[in-house]
UniProtKB/TrEMBL annotation:
Domain named HTH lysR-type: residues: 6-63
Sequence similarity: Belongs to the LysR transcriptional regulatory family.
Listed InterPro entries: HTH-type_LysR_regulators, LysR_HTH_N, LysR_subst-bd, WH-like_DNA-bd_sf, WH_DNA-bd_sf
Keyword terms: DNA-binding, Transcription, Transcription regulation
Organism: Paracoccus cavernae
Protein's name according to its UniProt entry: LysR family transcriptional regulator
CDD domains: PBP2_LTTR_substrate (cd05466)
The keyword Transcription regulation appears for this protein: yes
Keyword Membrane part of the UniProt annotation: no
Length: 200
């Protein structure tokens, strides 16, 4: 079959739906409505001539042929991204697809410098397609290991040997206690680690 630009778009949509377990999870990543995503999948199924996934009250499941299409699509899209990046290097212009993950608890953190880094990035001459994915620490760690995410930002208490960790900011934490707590009205100088240990 001939792979057109529309087919590539539909394959990217299908991959996002598979990776996020359905339409809802893929919406934020694709920036598309459920109706648009459904249309893309129907068009792809019509082009291929078979069903890729089952969707309904029982949930979202990928068919056997759908799983094969997903594997082929990921392989092809990966090769295309590598080609785009290599050609961009020859032109001395950044190209490709940059996938960034942010831990869900840090999305609304005003002190997180990610938005400043992205602003500086977009002032440079580049032709990069950017995707920002929000998820849990576990999900983003898995994405880093599989290559589905290029870089992730957030607290990662569990370290994996095949991931490179670098500090980008320091977040201050404080302890609070209620009105009826024994330490509520104590002077700050008396609230020491030794006193905390004695209260266990």
């Amino acid at each position: 079959m001939r792979i057109s630009d529309y087919t590539l778009r539909n394959l990217r949509t299908f991959c996002a739906v598979v990776e996020h377990g359905g339409f809802g999870g893929a919406q934020a990543v694709l920036g598309a409505s459920q109706a648009a995503i459904s249309t893309h999948l129907k068009d792809l199924e019509t082009t291929l001539g078979f069903t890729l996934c089952q969707r309904g009250r029982a949930g979202f499941t990928v068919t056997a042929k759908g799983a094969e299409v997903y594997a082929e699509a990921k392989r092809m899209l990966g090769v295309m991204e590598t080609c785009e990046a290599n050609l961009g290097t020859l032109r001395r212009v950044l190209t490709g697809h940059l996938r960034i993950g942010i831990v869900d608890s840090e999305v609304d953190n005003p002190d997180l410098p990610v938005h400043l880094a992205l602003r500086r990035f977009f002032t440079r001459e580049q032709q990069v397609r950017l995707t920002v994915e929000v998820g849990t620490t576990e999900a983003l760690s898995k994405g880093l290991q599989t290559g589905d995410i290029h870089v992730a930002v957030g607290p990662f208490p569990t370290r994996h040997a095949n991931i490179d960790y670098r500090p980008v900011w320091v977040e201050d934490h404080q302890l609070y206690c209620g009105l009826n707590h024994p330490l509520f009205d104590r002077p700050a100088a008396e609230i020491t680690p030794k006193r905390f240990r004695a209260m266990r």
